[in-house]
Amino acid sequence: MPSFSRRDIFSLATKGAALGAFMAPVSQSALAASSASQLPYKINQLIHGVAYYPELWPDADVDADIAEMHSLGINLVRMAEFAWSTMETTPGNYDFSLFKNVMDKMHAAGIAVVLCTPTATPPAWLTHNHPERCHKNADGTVMSHGARQHASYEHPAVRKACFSIIRRMSHELGRHPALIGWQLDNEMKAHVAEDFSDAAIANWRKWLKQRFGSIDKLNEAWGTHIWSQHYNNFEQVPAPVTTPFLHNASLITAYKLFCRESVADFMLAQRNVIREFSDLPITHNDNPAFNIHHERSMQALDFASYDAYPTAEQWSTLVFRSDLYRAAIPGRPFWLMETSVAHNGWLGNHQPIHPEGFLAAEASLIYALGGEGFCYWLWRQQRTGAELPHSAVKSAWNAPSIGYNEVKKVSEAKQQLEPTLLNSTLITPEVAVTYSDHARAMLETESLDKRSGFPARYRGIIEMWHKQVLDSGLHREARFEGASLDGLKLLITPAMPYVSEAFLIRAQDFMQRGGIWIAGPVTGTRGKEHTVPVEAGLGLLEKMAGVSTQYVLPLTGTDAKGELLGVESELSGWCAAVKAKAGTNVVGTITKGRAKGLAFATERPIGKGKLVLLGAHPHGDNSVAMLNRLIGHYAQQAGVTMRFDVPEGVVVVPRKNTQGKLLWIVLNMLNETKTVSLPNGATDMLSGKTLAGTTELDPYARLIVNTNQEV
């Protein structure tokens, strides 16, 4: 098997010139535009990878592992994210020989390597007898060595040790011919949230001073005379530790933003250290559940990657995360860096095992949606530690696992899809859902929709809206708040309490050019510092929407109802009941409840497009019908072309080949047969046969279709 060169998978040029783009705090959209222009990326093959831990097993096993990886079609291993104590047994005593030897063997075998910085698991010598270097929760609990993510990244001694191991590691291994990329840390802040250590609180006050400039401006922005919270200097501003009741909403949200931005900046600092010795691409295995500022963290990365451990019933999570991380750094493929071979598991839980065929369907979905890498956690089942029940390719006793043959099926799917995917490009979606890190922090401070069954977390709300768009058959993605709106025709922004002037300017330009913006429930109801707007009920959004907010009120449990575009449904959640001003049309009216007769949905022409305000969320038996009506109506008005009439559980991914023809990758994500309608004259690209108007798609099956239509 031929060896990889550094450029076999990643073709990245003029990296040095691009480093300046990562040094200053810039918006994700500006960064993406800069990095895309200066770091051209060329995909040359698909990655089928696995997490590998040579520090845990005998050296004698490596050659046999490599031979077995070849038989399974695995062409990449990811290593070292938990190996700090192996590489630096005592302070300054470095030894990278184990990993160099393994990388030598991988390179000789043609298996590429991604190395991880090991900062998620600091060794005992760093924190033993140093509780001040450890993460502290809001209740004062200090984390102990023994798991991971226990150290405080805010403490200067911890940072110094982190940067020292990264610098030495990148110096020793950064130019190894097997190495094709880096991963920063591992699942940043997956197990801990805000850090309340003394070091963190000291940095918090520096952050506040930089943010506000003077304490008077902070007091004014937060309204601190309430409950005598007024401060005379920044040293008096507390962190939101445990109190008899609740802190000011402004303080709680600001502390979340500080901590999450600080983690993203720590990632950027790690990147800068690696760049002293290595110019290879850098990523991080992210996840919307982690407590970091996701959009800001993209400043540290050359390509995005994520983790996902769904059960078969949670397959749509894969679509959402692929749509989010594909759009995170435009023009770059993303990776699914970790998923389970058969099931997830740790000491407190294990999930149901995947049905036969699901893993290959999962991989096919990731590759089709623009993913370059599909990787497992892990190669061999852990024999010690906290994740003993987790599935792996091999058992702890080194025999094929229950998922072993499923990995073979993934390799077969990859080989089948690869020629088509490498010679086609994903069609740019015309529909997007907005994801906002600021909104997430606000809704964690103040959850505005408390009804039973409604998602308790921000990401659940966004996934719910994304799933509604997916089930409508629309080709879509999720874009960060600061991202460009280029290429879109329909933008849906649910649950974004604060709408900034910068976002409104981009939205206005988008609508002037013909786009339709649906500003969903809760959007606009809070100010930047998590206060209630005083100039209008919906802040800056209200004037643009051409409405006058009469009330902002909770409808949960009131049996309120409304009618929108001919569909009636119960309404719930936090509602903006409005009156339309001249030039604004009412499209949804509250028909029952305290706000009866007022509008909850309006539309206003702006340039060639329009702004649609949805002030309340439908609820109950008819809620899906109302949302389908809303999305379908405005997708049609916006001229969205990539919409597919497919049954639930079937995903169509539209791509364009080198001849300009429209291809469909059709995927059945359910363990049941589905009937799919196909374009007239379509052909099966594998068999060359002409397809009928409909076809039966077996459970977890895939179909590569040439529609023979021009894009």
UniProtKB/TrEMBL annotation:
Residues covered by the Glycoside hydrolase family 42 N-terminal domain: 52-414
Pfam families (alphabetical): Glyco_hydro_42, Glyco_hydro_42C, Glyco_hydro_42M
Keyword Iron attached: no
Keywords attached to this entry: Glycosidase, Hydrolase, Metal-binding, Signal, Zinc
Residues making up the signal peptide according to the UniProt record: 1-32
Top enzyme class: hydrolase
Protein name in the entry: Beta-galactosidase
